[in-house]
Amino acid sequence: MKKEFVIQIQSVKASLRDFAKVYKKLERGEKVDAVEKLTFTNVNDFRKFITPKRLELLKAVKQKKPSSIQQLAKILNRDYKSINTDLQILQKMDLISRKREDNKTMLEVNYSEIEIKIPLMAGG
Question: Which of 66, 85, 97, 116 counts the most CB atoms within 10 A of its CB?
C-alpha cells in the first residue's frame, strides 16, 4: 500500500474552509479519510522548507536505508552537521522519523511519495 504525504500552498482562508468542511462531516457522523498534509501560505515559505538538498536526503533515506547519520552524510557527500539540521527540520514536519537502536540512529521515511499542490487560481 502506497502511503502519501501532501504538501500544499494554500491561503489561511482556504485552509479554514477545508477544516470547516471536514468538521461538519464529522459532526454528521460521516467518514472522513485521514490525509497527512503540510500547508504553506506562500511559495517562498514552501521553497525555504523543501530545498533540493532535503528532497535528496529524503530520497536517500528511502532508497539507500542508511544505518546511521554518518553513513547518510557519506552517501550524500555532505557534512554531519548540515545533515543533522535538515533531519531535525524534516522530523518536525513528520516527513522522517528517527529511532535509537544499538547506539545508532535509524532513519525512516514513511511515505512512498509526496504530492505537491500549488494552486494557479486565486482563492487557493
Answer: 66
**Where are the strands (E) in the chain, listed by range?**
4-9, 37-40, 97-101, 104-108, 113-117
pTM of structure: 0.76
Instruction: State which H helix or E strand residue 69 sits in.
Output: helix 69-76
Number of H helices, E strands in the chain: 5, 5
How far is the C-alpha of 93 from the C-alpha of 88, rounded, in Å?
9
Laid out side by side, the sheet with 4-9 consists of 37-40, 4-9, 113-117
Q: How many angstroms separate the CA atoms of 105 and 124, rounded?
A: 39
Name the residue type at position 54.
Answer: R
Q: How many CB atoms lie within 10 A of CB 58?
A: 20
